[in-house]
């Protein structure tokens, strides 16, 4: 597949990294020649320095025979014009644009993106994706990461093992024997900073970060086995009143269960603006690091603090301060993945990574064939893919234990005729089955080959 990626920033670079590693023909376009050089030097991609919306620049990038264009520059308007040029001049069949402006995303203007107007096939809103992920994290406070699959029938849970874990020093094989009816599967372990797919002899030890794929109906039992409980979130403080904070607050106001929420915003104009848009949320003007203000907001009786300002360090410090003042659960928005190593020392429970959520959202629409969902783990270290097994797949008719899986991949759940099962060695893979598979990044292309997901692209 030939793909043009416009914008070589964090998101564009990660998308290029994913797609080039899977042997796609990728060209990166950016008006910053240094960013283009970085992509060309570190990835197996071509690069063009220039304005992505200019027809001659797209022509040099190979737009005449491109299959897809992803417009992810920092300018909404450039992304829009790029898709228009890609459609009108080069007839590129698939066009994806990242848009930040909230007015562009308003549902009443959705007709704008039809083929006769602005021909954009998929619109990605980073703030919306981050707000959705933050809300998921609020609903699952016992986890450091969570993502639904199979229309909510399966959940991926990230759990840090503490002394309260009931199965410490237990091998995964023993875990299956102890709980034969538990529809859950440990698909990955991060130990000493290294993410691996474990074998059945691997033991669970304290401080491990494990990723568990569980049937949604068994989620509470699964959490209990790993020593976790989901406490009700009645009181939430949001630090940062930008687009993400506002979206989260509006969602909490619309929640069927009443949640008392407050927003702390440092900019007075912004605080006044969001106060006019919210009905039940209390908006406080001030610094989220101000101890007196936090105490005035009753931080010690708050269930969760969600720090979503546009500065990673402010979010980390605000969470650390909230934790020191007695808040039991703190979640920080962190753009820079290298800063996540500070979460442990600062006693921060969970994080939301805007880059990873945006990359996951784009990949969901880029992946070939019958791929229904994609979730990026860590700093593009791994992916969790939900895909339908096609008749052309070489593994159709085989049982799981007989398939030569890549070392860095494992099936977390399988759905047959609408019913979800925990995969066993003797589970037969049949056409039409839907699987959730965890795979390290270097093995994604081999997993796609096994599932033959590129047959009916588009």
The average pLDDT value, as a whole number, equals: 88
Assign the CATH class of the largest domain.
Alpha Beta
Global outline:
globular
The largest sheet is: 6 strands, parallel
* CATH second-level architecture of the largest domain: 3-Layer(aba) Sandwich
Helix/strand-derived category reads alpha/beta
Q: Which fold does the CATH topology of the largest domain refer to?
A: Rossmann fold
Task: Describe the overall structure.
This protein has 14 helices and 22 strands. By secondary structure, the chain is of the alpha/beta class. It has four domains: 2-124, Rossmann fold (3-Layer(aba) Sandwich); 142-225, Regulator of K+ conductance, C-terminal domain (Alpha-Beta Plaits); 235-352, 3-Layer(aba) Sandwich (Rossmann fold); 357-451, Regulator of K+ conductance, C-terminal domain (Alpha-Beta Plaits), CATH 3.30.70.1450. The strands form four sheets. It has a six-stranded parallel β-sheet with strand order 3-2-1-4-5-6, with helices on both faces. It has a six-stranded parallel β-sheet with strand order 14-13-12-15-16-17, with helices on both faces. The protein has a five-stranded antiparallel β-sheet with strand order 7-8-11-9-10. The longest helix is centred in the N-terminal third of the chain and has 14 residues, at 126-139. Mean pLDDT is 88; it is low at 454-458.
Write the layout of secondary structure elements.
Layout: E1 2-6, H1 10-21, E2 25-30, H2 33-42, E3 46-49, H3 55-60, E4 68-71, H4 76-88, E5 94-98, H5 102-105, E6 122-124, H6 126-139, E7 145-149, E8 154-160, H7 172-178, E9 184-191, E10 194-196, E11 209-215, H8 219-225, E12 235-239, H9 243-253, E13 260-265, H10 268-277, E14 282-285, H11 291-296, E15 304-307, H12 312-324, E16 329-333, E17 350-352, H13 354-366, E18 371-377, E19 382-388, E20 409-416, E21 419-421, E22 434-440, H14 444-451
Parallel strand pairs: 1-2, 1-4, 2-3, 4-5, 5-6, 12-13, 12-15, 13-14, 15-16, 16-17
Antiparallel strand pairs: 7-8, 8-11, 9-10, 9-11, 18-19, 19-22, 20-21, 20-22
């Amino acid at each position: 597949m030939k793909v043009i990626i416009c914008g070589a920033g964090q998101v564009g670079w990660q998308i290029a990294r994913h797609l080039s590693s899977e042997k796609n023909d990728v060209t990166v376009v950016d008006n910053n020649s240094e960013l283009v050089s970085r992509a060309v030097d570190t990835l197996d991609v071509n690069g063009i320095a220039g304005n992505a919306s200019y027809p001659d620049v797209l022509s040099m990038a190979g737009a005449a025979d491109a299959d897809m264009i992803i417009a992810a520059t920092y300018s909404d308007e450039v992304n829009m014009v790029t898709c228009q040029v890609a459609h009108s001049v080069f007839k590129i069949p698939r066009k994806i644009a990242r848009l930040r402006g909230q007015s562009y995303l308003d549902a009443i203007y959705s007709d704008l993106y039809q083929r006769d107007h602005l021909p954009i096939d998929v619109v990605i809103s980073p703030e919306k994706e981050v707000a959705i992920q933050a809300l998921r994290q609020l609903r699952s406070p016992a986890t450091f990461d969570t993502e639904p699959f199979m229309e909510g029938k399966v959940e991926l849970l990230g759990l840090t093992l503490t002394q309260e874990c009931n199965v410490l020093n237990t091998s995964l094989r023993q875990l299956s024997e102890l709980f034969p009816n538990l529809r859950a599967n440990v698909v990955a372990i991060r130990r000493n900073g290294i993410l691996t797919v474990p074998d059945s002899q691997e033991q669970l030890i304290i401080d491990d970060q494990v990723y568990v794929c569980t049937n949604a109906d068994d989620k509470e039992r699964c959490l209990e086995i790993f020593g976790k409980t989901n406490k009700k979130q009645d009181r939430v403080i949001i630090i940062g009143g930008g687009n993400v904070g506002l979206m989260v607050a509006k969602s909490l106001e619309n929640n069927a269960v009443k949640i008392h929420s407050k927003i702390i915003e440092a900019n007075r104009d912004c605080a006044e603006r969001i106060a006019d848009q919210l009905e039940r949320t209390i908006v406080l003007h001030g610094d989220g690091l101000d101890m007196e203000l936090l105490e005035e907001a009753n931080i010690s009786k708050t269930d969760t603090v969600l720090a979503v300002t546009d500065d990673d360090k402010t979010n980390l410090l605000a969470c650390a301060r909230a934790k020191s003042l007695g808040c039991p659960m703190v979640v920080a928005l962190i753009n820079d993945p290298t800063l996540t190593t500070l979460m442990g020392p600062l006693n921060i429970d969970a994080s939301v990574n805007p880059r990873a959520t945006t990359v996951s959202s784009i990949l969901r629409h880029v992946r070939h064939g019958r791929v229904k969902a994609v979730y990026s783990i860590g700093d593009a270290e791994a992916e969790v893919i939900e895909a339908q097994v096609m008749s052309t797949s070489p593994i159709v008719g085989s049982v799981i234990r007989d398939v030569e899986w890549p070392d860095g991949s494992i099936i977390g759940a399988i759905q047959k005729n609408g019913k979800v099962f925990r995969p066993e060695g003797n589970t037969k893979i049949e056409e039409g089955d839907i699987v959730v598979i965890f795979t390290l990044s270097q093995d994604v292309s081999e997993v796609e080959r096994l599932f033959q997901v590129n047959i009916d692209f588009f």
